[in-house]
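hiii so um. not sure if this is the right channel but i have a protein structure encoded as tokens and i wanna go backwards to a sequence. like what aa goes where. can anyone help
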């Protein structure tokens, strides 16, 4: 099972004071260049969008009929999940980091029923995030045991 960073527990406190949108919409190529510059040690898929990797989701996750993006950046066994809210044809807001993962193992990032999911496919051992339209942010879903 992947271990989430303790910083994820602070996310509700940090997002309460974050602006609704970070920056203005920009083309995907601009956002990827920014990531490659600011996160040089982190591996990104060679081609974005690349739906053949475990690191990329392109789907409407906010319910506004506009495709959004989520990218799992990898650095050894660690990972960072970034969410880009789509804003029309080919434009995205700056990424929101929604989680860091200490130990990825065989986990993949995928979408399921409008939610973003991290974990092994065909498993119950998953981490799930859904769009919170009130806070304008992806929010962890608490699963009942």
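sure thing!! here u go:
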């Amino acid at each position: 099972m992947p271990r989430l960073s303790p910083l994820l527990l602070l996310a509700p406190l940090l997002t309460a004071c974050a602006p609704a949108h970070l920056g203005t919409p920009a083309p995907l190529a601009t956002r990827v260049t920014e990531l490659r510059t600011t996160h040089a040690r982190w591996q990104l898929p060679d081609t974005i969008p690349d739906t053949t990797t475990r690191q990329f989701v392109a789907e409407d996750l906010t319910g506004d009929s506009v495709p959004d993006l989520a990218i799992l950046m990898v650095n050894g066994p660690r990972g960072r999940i970034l969410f880009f809210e789509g804003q029309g044809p080919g434009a995205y807001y700056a990424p929101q980091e929604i989680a860091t993962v200490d130990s990825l193992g065989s986990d993949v990032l995928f979408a399921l029923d409008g939610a973003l999911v991290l974990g092994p496919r065909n498993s119950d051992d998953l981490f799930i995030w859904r769009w919170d339209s009130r806070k304008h942010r992806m929010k962890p879903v608490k699963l009942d045991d």
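oh and The radius of gyration is 14 Å.
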